[in-house]
Amino acid sequence: MSDPVGALSLNSSALKQEELFPIREVSRLTGVNSVTLRAWERRYGLLQPTRTESGHRLYSQADIESVRSILAWTERGVTVSKVGKILAKSSSAKAASAPVYEVATASEWQQWQTQVRIAVGCFDDLQLDRLYGQIFSSYPLPVVFQDILMPLWQDLLMRHDDVSQASEWLFYDTFLRGRALQRLHAMRSQTEERVLLAALPGHCRELELLVTGLLLSDSSAAVTVLGVGQPLGELAYLCERIKPLGLVLFSNQPPNEQLPQTLKRLALAVNCPVSLTGACADLIEDVLSGTAIACLGSEGRLMSRRLQQFLAGHLDT
User: Fold this and answer.
1) Are 46 and 40 spatial neighbours (Cβ–Cβ below 8 Å)?
2) Full DSSP string of 108-161
3) Minimal CA–CA distance to 72: which of 276, 208, 164?
4) I need a surface site. Which of 31, 93, 199, 316 has the fewest CB within 10 A?
5) Which residues neighbour 140 within 8 Å (Cβ) at sequence distance 6 or greater?
6) Residue (of 187, 221, 206, 226) closest to 304 by Cα position
7) Domains identified in the chain and CATH numbers
8) What is the mean pLDDT for each group of 10 consecutive residues in the chain (317 residues)?
9) What backbone phi and psi angles, to 5 degrees, belong to 199?
């Protein structure tokens, strides 16, 4: 397999000196106007650009990724005032869980994303497959999906209405779903123990659910991903027939007022431990504290570990 660093033509000086962008360029890249960017900084503390001697703002690639994350959360219905807490928790989890060999610069991931974006724009499935293999040879699974592949998927999704973007997103989405299914099947063949993963109806797209299945899987238990649209009312029947180690529910949408009671009723109906993961878990964790339902969060480096701790009875709920 070719050297991924060589394929990207990375050099040490490029990695040491991070590129900085003026506010007008950040606005162009993200679609967020300058007034909103300043408000996110001043009112909510969501961004921390550096300043030139004359006081002009300069944004790093990490700042741009933060802007895109904020957009993704607000698209799901999360208010801007709540986004800061979620981003801080995610950043803290990444810093605490990532070993030294996982640490890479945002600019390095951006260069991989650029190569992938070019392949997607050309609808070149062979080149996309080569890049996919190179990325997996360089980083562990959580970094591959959460830091490299899925942010680009989300960016294309948000630009879905632009000319040609719908076709590019669909091409990329189809490719990633196929690869995720392959990996889930390979993991399933390595162990008979399994955990069921189901999405709350209407709360995610299929790829988000499949990637979550990959992030939750480990050598002791594979994850069986139930189809998007799985009725909650039939989960008790499935758990009775399959007898999984646990049931994980997934949602990337803000919780409504009825959700805590819905989850509590479901936990009483099924014959295995119940947990919640995804963006919703970060938002509802305080409400579910002290119940039988565990919140696994949305950080890929921690989800599998927290699930195993919960199933072993070592995770406080």
Assistant:
1) yes
2) HHHHHHHHHHHHHHTT-HHHHHHHHHHHHHHS-HHIIIIIIIHHHHHHHHHTTT
3) 208
4) 316
5) 102
6) 221
7) 192-311 (3.40.50.280)
8) 41 49 89 90 88 88 84 79 75 55 63 94 96 92 91 85 82 97 86 90 91 88 91 94 95 88 93 92 87 89 88 77
9) -90, 145
Closest CA relative to residue 230, chosen from 194, 266, 273, 188: 266
- Helix, coil or strand: residue 11: coil
Alpha-carbon distance 272 to 239, whole Å?
7
Distance from C-alpha of 59 to C-alpha of 268, rounded to nearest angstrom = 49
Number of CB atoms found within 10 A of residue 258's CB: 8
Instruction: Provide the pLDDT for residue 14.
Output: 38
User: CA 303 to CA 309: how far, in whole Å?
Assistant: 10
Nearest to 80 by CA among 254, 225, 197: 254
The label of the residue with tokens 């294309």 reads 156
Q: Residue 70 in contact with residue 36, Cβ under 8 Å?
A: no
The phi, psi pair for 60, rounded to 5°, reads -85, 170
pTM: 0.76
Q: What number of other Cβ atoms are within 10 A of residue 287's Cβ?
A: 15
Q: Are 227 and 201 in contact (CB under 8 A)?
A: no
**The token pair that represents 101 in the structure block:** 């060999």
pLDDT value at residue 79: 80
Strand duo 57-59 + 50-51: pairing: antiparallel
